[in-house]
Amino acid sequence: MSRLTTRILIVLSVLSIIGMVSTQVYWVRKAYELRERQFLQSVTKALGEVARRVARPETGMPVGVQVVMLSPTYYLVNLDAPIDPGKLEFYLGAELEIHQILTDFEYGIYDNNAGQIIYENSSRQPAESPGLAKTASRPASSPYYFVVRFPNQVQYLTQQLDSWILASVIVLLLTSFFMYLFYRMLTQRNQTEDRREFINNMTHELQTPITSIKIAADVLSSPKIFEQPERMLKYVRMVQEETLRLQQQVETVLTVARSENKAAFKLQPVSIDMHELLYNLAERHGDYLHLELEAHYPVIQADRLHLTNVLGNLVDNAVKYTPANPVIRLQTRNENGQFVFVVQDNGIGIAPEHQPHIFNAYYRAPGANNHSVKGFGLGLSYVQKIIKAHHWKLSLSSAPGQGSSFSIRIPQPIVQPLRKKTELRVKN
Predict the structure, then answer these.
(1) CA 365, CA 356: separation in Å to the nearest integer?
(2) What is the pTM of this model?
(3) Which intervals hold domain Histidine kinase (predicted)?
(4) Residue among 86, 198, 93 nearest 131 (CA)
(5) Residue 65: which of 50, 86, 84, 85 has the closest Cα?
(6) SS3 of 173, please?
(7) What is the predicted pLDDT for the residue at 194?
(8) Which structural domains are found in the chain, ordered by start?
(9) What share of the chain is helix, strand, coil (3-state, %, to 5)?
């Protein structure tokens, strides 16, 4: 399965989860709106019955009743007759219970003459004093009305949807769990492919020096080689060079393996002059490497062995991916209390979609997975581990055909002696 297919499957999975979440939210919302409409209808019917029961018509004419919803939690009831507070409280409780409205409510009676609510009570509180009830029952000019409020209406309706919400949460959790398993499966598959590619690269990289050593050993085992000292010396040097190359490759793999073992991986920070370290590094390269050392304070605290490996990996990586006329610049500067080190090349660059993955172990960007570009795909993974272990910051700026620039920012809590700006071009 290609990486593009994997990305498409992951995107489709995410869209599926978003679709399911949206659907669940939509149906829960619709269910809530349905409950709210049913609540409104039940309250309107119950309050109409209450109004007809508490009104005291002095004639045989029917009492006019009007129920007005001021808000989903607040209702006003108009009627053409005085209101008896005692009857109102009794019938409110009875009718709301009959209509299955089992939530707390508050109510009040309005006196049109006084221009205010003269009696108010709550289903959660005892009734007011008889004196206030008598005052409230005095006849007043029309219209008479009372108000009812349901302070916990939202919680009441939400509780009725508990089963809906619980079912939705369970479905979402199960979906998320299976999507997570699917994602892990794809990740493991990609890691397996990366490891397979790593093994292929490692086999090729190790086989080349072994083959050279075998050829040299066969030649050196011939009795006639002693008659040709120059030729013998040539093959001896070949054995030495290929042995050193083989040793370096094995050490690279072992170093990365040790860095992944947190128990065995420990830094030993010491004071290091970065400029001195870069001079030593530059001596092993040709005139394609330029030092632009502008930092006035080059001393940092770091593990010398791992820092040397990091610098070597970054420079070797820049050389490998600059196929022709390489120009590698090593730059330093001090900035905002930090020592900034930059490795800049004019190589093939890295496409934006591959940049988040190049620090993964065994990963090699498309175009790098061929044996003409040597390596195991472990260098940048190792670099990132060491940078994180030191609590530094590593950043990448790159574009296809425009080269790459790796920057390391290192905190410098202690001020160092001043140094002059230096530019050096190293030649063989």
Answers:
(1) 11
(2) 0.47
(3) 201-414
(4) 86
(5) 50
(6) helix
(7) 64
(8) 7-160 (no CATH), 162-260 (1.10.287.130), 269-425 (3.30.565.10)
(9) 50, 20, 30
